[in-house]
Write a structure and sequence with these properties.
The complex is a heterotrimer of chains A (about 120), B (about 500) and C (about 425). Chain A is about 20% helix and about 40% strand. Chain A has about 120 residues and is an alpha+beta fold. Chain A has a five-stranded mixed sheet with strand order 8-5-6-10-9. In chain A, a hairpin with a 2-residue loop joins strand 2 and strand 3. The longest helix of chain A is centred in the middle third of the chain and has 12 residues. Chain A is elongated. Chain B has three domains: about 230 residues, 3-Layer(bba) Sandwich (FAD/NAD(P)-binding domain); about 140 residues, D-Amino Acid Oxidase, Chain A, domain 2, CATH 3.30.9.10; about 80 residues. With about 500 residues, chain B is an alpha+beta fold. In chain B, strands 5, 6, 7, 13, 14, 15, 16, 17 and 18 form a nine-stranded mixed sheet that branches. In chain B, strands 1, 2, 9, 10, 11, 12, 19 and 20 form an eight-stranded mixed sheet that branches. Chain B has a three-stranded antiparallel sheet with strand order 3-8-4. Chain B contains twelve helices and 23 strands. Chain C folds into three domains: about 190 residues, 3-Layer(bba) Sandwich (FAD/NAD(P)-binding domain), CATH 3.50.50.60; about 130 residues, 3-Layer(bba) Sandwich (FAD/NAD(P)-binding domain), CATH 3.50.50; about 90 residues, Immunoglobulin-like (Sandwich), CATH 2.60.40. The N and C termini of chain C lie far apart (about 60 Å). The chains are: A alpha+beta (about 120), B alpha+beta (about 500), C alpha/beta (about 425). At the B-C interface, helix 7, strand 18, helix 9, helix 12 and strand 23 of B face strand 5, strand 6, helix 3, helix 4 and strand 9 of C. Strand 23 of chain B pairs antiparallel with strand 9 of chain C, so a sheet runs across the interface.
Chain lengths: ~120, ~500, ~425
Amino acid sequence: MEEKNFICTACPMGCKLIVRMENDEVIQVLGHRCRRGEGYGRQEATAPKRMLATTVRTINGKHPLLPVYTSSEVPKAKMAEILAILRQVEISCPVKMGDVVLENIADTGIDILASRDM
Amino acid sequence: MSKNEYDILIIGGGVVGSMIARWLSRYELRLLLIEKEADLCMGSSAANTAIIHAGYDPVPGSLKAALNVRGNAMYDQLSAELGFAFERPGDMVVAVGEEEWPNLLALHEFGKQNAVPDMHLFDAAEVKKREPHINPNAIGALWAGTTGIVDPFQATIAAAENAVMNGAEVLLNTAFTDFIIENKRVVGVKTTRGEMRARWVINAAGIYADAVMHKANTGKDFKITPRRGEYFVFDPADVQINNVLFPVPSAKGKGILVTTTVHGNTIAGPNAQVIDDKEDTATTSAGMDEVIAGAQKLIPSINPRFTIATFAGLRAMGNAACKTPGVNYHADFLIEVSPEIGGLINVAGIESPGLSASPAIAEYVIEVLKDAGETLIEKKDWNPIRPARPRFRELSHAQRQELVKLDPAYARVICRCENITEAEIVREIHAPIPATTYDAIKRRTWLGTGRCQGGFDSPLISKILARELKLSELEISKRGEGSNFLFRETKSVEELER
Amino acid sequence: MKESYDVVVIGAGPAGLASAIEAKKSGADKVLVIERDREPGGILLQCIHNGFGLHTFKEDLPGPAYAQRFIDEAASVGVDLLLDTMVMEVSEERQLWLSSASKGYFSLDAKAVVLAMGCRERTRAQIRIPGMRPSGVFTAGTAQRWVNVEGYMPGKRFVILGSGDIGMIMARRLTLEGAKVESVLEVQNYLSGLMRNYVQCLEDWNVPLHLRHTVKRVIGKNRVEAVEAVAVDEKWQFIPGTERIIPCDTLLLSVGLIPENELSKQAGVKLDPITGGPVVDQNFQTNLAGVFAAGNVVHVYDLVDYVSEAGDQAGKAAALFAQSLLTPAKKTIPVKAGKNVRYVVPHTLDPLALEKEDIVLQCRVSQPIEEDVWFEVRNENQSIVRRSDRYARPGEMVSVKLTPSMFADVMQADALTLDIYAKSEA
């Protein structure tokens, strides 16, 4: 049996979770004080994901960088790959807030969106 | 005379070197001032109490005393000619506790011997009336009406600019490395930017004046001991002291002052700590505590929470014996033609009252040159006036409107806390002594000295400097080589660290 | 450009934009927002991370997107916007002097003014870190502007002092962009900012956090070469022997935010010495009639959504004032910071305002209480309202709502006090 420790971020409380696992499966979540916490614990132990926000270079942009973000949380395991792709990217301006500047980043099914007009 | 040949070459771009340049620029001479840093006024001239002392403090009979009193008297005319900020609020040396009164009287005596004008003794009530925040245990004070406050950066740069206007040359980023000596005479210098020849070299190298002398195998027994002093600058919203306040001095020196400044801040300091390292201008925990304690002796309500800035400077304390017979003093100014080698004039050991004395030192150097046989021919067209450039923050609404009509860049405020505008900054970048670093702009315009200490303006200045100097922002620095702000572009892939 | 406006808002950040929009919607005809930067959005433009809008839009947006929503709405409701312009002076009679490279130096009059200038960062000098003054000591916000907007990295190896949100956010940001963050040092024995940021910025990116540590001195003359870190006790005194030199080229300071109060002071607005921002009533009106304040300029908020709410409140009141529809209070009562409360905003309120509408009190606890707590508002005699939560932390603002049902009790009060205490101490 394996035990993993997390601080839950489902709400600002920050309960300290203990997730017990057997053969890569969650058998118990402890320390949560609500349902969302239990869900967070399970997710974090098996397939943690995060929102990613960064900047990309622009072509013809008012600023040299355009802030962008992922349309939803991406697998933590894919973050390095996504960041490496985004480092190389140059986005043509003008763009509008919410425009998809890159589709299906690193095969996650998640898009990269412009955070603002530029 | 060919290129790189001068009549007089000055080593050191502090207030002393700059004043000497300004005074010499009056004569038909090819002049060069070399400064090792990226800007003038980066040594002791940049880190002091900015006070033009009355002259009661130096040992009577010393060169310090004579030049202090003479220099003090010159500042009204000089500040008007050169367009730098100067005021004469007078000062009070405050005795706290009865046991300090005898030393106060002794100071008064010194002052009389030094022929300092306008000195009186105040009783406790008078002191309290003039400074309501004064320590309630203050029993009285020595008043000296001629004490002034100045902006030492403006004074230094204005003097050098006036010299340049009148034909002198100034080279920044040019460090003295050695002398060129022929037939037991200094005939020039070697620097990091090549060799220059001159009939006279004036050593005004401040904290390094001894090292310069030693390069000519002279001044073996002359030593500059760095004495570091730490300072606080307080927020004018929290501390409003309208006076220049000294404690009764001790053996260590003038003591820790609390004084108003020409910019409206109150500063406290300096303490005095002998150190070895001539590059060490660090503030220290113990030193800062000492300065606060000293400040609180005069103004008990001073609280370190009111701090807007701290800094430290080094005093160039020399060990030259006073030349006046009968005066037993061994830290006097050393201003003379070197007795050991031709062509070298030393202006060394210039610690307090160096700023106060600087114009008088310049006058004195002229006499030294004349005594050494130099025929100094006055220029017919010497212009002593160096007009100050407009300072937006000091102007009325109507004046600002006029200025903005001339140049809209005067309307773009870059330093929010102190109201410094883009046009002022651009003018300093292209001035006769160009400001090419953040700190250089700060010294000239007062940018970045307010509450946010450059937090807002730094990215803007980086841009403006790069644009005006036609450089990449990566090349913009705080104080010259090795002090760049920015390392690389955010997205430069080749620099990725992992 | 008009010569007079109904409502002039100083600052086009989230508070300013919300004020202006709400002012327009509340009947103010001519509304102007003045902004010193070349585009609107304020500090949000450099806060490219997510976490904004969870309450306002029920979405998890990055800062610039949150700003864009308000920028778009301000344009659509007809708010005038003056960019690249600094307000130099505000008089008690609400005459403003403006300095604008495009429009010149001029004055205009406002029937009502909303101060929304945000805040600035505490500096190295204010915490008196010894050392020389090399390049490479920056506040976290200045570094953030360079990294996210100007496109430059101000260093390679960083030490961050302060576990406030900006410091933690920058720890992640810098690491994402290829820099090394050696450590986050925090002088208290608790996290200054939000737990979420600890997880997503420090834990996720393997940045060590050292509580009860600070920087003893900065090393370097031209550029930072290292910092000397040291452990401290509960009185913030250095513990001898715990010093450690951390080689780095940059020290980022995330040691507190201070309301940007240059204009407020100049105008004669009375300030609260604890918050550093204006003393305000439930309409966010200052001691100067017709001068309102909203957002971080009043006190430092943790979530931008609450800033927008404050902007709404102030903008509406400003618009009503401009239309002479804001009834001056016959009586106001002070709202005091009680047990464990560092400050409460608003500082005063008009009890009559509670007759028809809620009044929200916002505060911060002075020390963390990591157990069930009561937030209680009382008058001299009795408890007026009490609500509970599982903890109270200085890094998270607390709101307590007064509702019309409490009107009678509040009307009788000479003063209200807000206390925070552990249930176990009740």
